[in-house]
Input
Amino acid sequence: MTAPKKVVLAYSGGLDTSIILKWLQTEYGCEVITFTADLGQGEELDPARKKAELLGIKPENIHIEDVREEFVRDFVFPMFRANALYEGLYLLGTSIARPLISKRLVEIAHEHGADAVAHGATGKGNDQVRFELSAYALDPSIRVIAPWREWDLSSRTKLLEFAEQNQIPIAKDKRGEAPFSVDANLLHTSSEGKVLENPGEEAPDYVYQRTVHPEDAPDEPEFLEITFERGDAVAINGAAMSPATILTKLNELGGKHGVGRLDLVENRFVGMKSRGVYETPGGTILLEAHRGIEQITLDSGAGHLKDSIMPRYAELIYNGFWFSPEREMLQALIDKSQEHVTGTVRVKLYKGSVRTVARWSDHSLYSEAHVTFEEDAGAYDQKDAAGFIRLNALRLKLLATRNARVKP
Output
């Protein structure tokens, strides 16, 4: 295969992607363009610019972009309209960030006339699949380079030797093995590897970075109100905020109360099981509140159908199929269900938990007149239930009669 002329690299500024940058230059002799996304990971990104310049990247070829609002508005919020949970627990914080990064890689490649994009995901994980499926869905002719599947830098020692040979700065804390690896964005932190690889051992407290230990959280509960419009959060305690600002605020509140910790052994798309420790404080609050407002605004038939397709929708995102037609079809159904999911939910944060305690809406389907234990003024005729039960019991009675007559 011929060498690429221009490659757009998903670049964090860290040691691994700096080595990849230099490897692309030396292996292919190509021009490298870097893209660094501010997804709310909480790190200073200016060092990425300086590191790229140090490695010979022209200033006009360095792209550092704040995509937090786009991330929450166009990716996180649509996913939360579905109440998506992978394997019933995981809020998909890493999974949902990858299609946005791939989208920008492809767009920047088009802007620069680049013929390839590159990423730093390893050959064992899910991210390689997510990056590449998204890239091919957006540009079927794009070439994707995955150095971890190509090079012979198979150990930490070899990586450090390559860095030293090519004058790539190595931070002192990178000389030894990191105790675990971290991926972070505005929705969550994900920690895995090293001290976390044995699922029979409890994760050390130092793994958690975004939440206090629930036992150390405030002894007094905190209440907050989240307002929704058509399934998306738009205000906290009556103050209108942008999508990214809402998630940032919920992260702060949830982290203070130890909300959103998850220790999970999950099934990777590539076939193996892996153990991850996740912190999703704001997302956990948002999920609880969204389900709270749906309880009074969503019809039972619509809600049950939506819940039945959720596992498939979540699996599509986890496996990297955000830009697939089936995900878009399910999204259209989900978005249709949210037309009246408008109102306010009050939640209680306390010692690692978040619970809905009240909800109200002008779009509510809840009728006190029908459910009251007091006189209902004719809103509901209880005699109607007899015929309803007889009709639903008919097939059960026929089955029981047949089974009593004919023994298997």
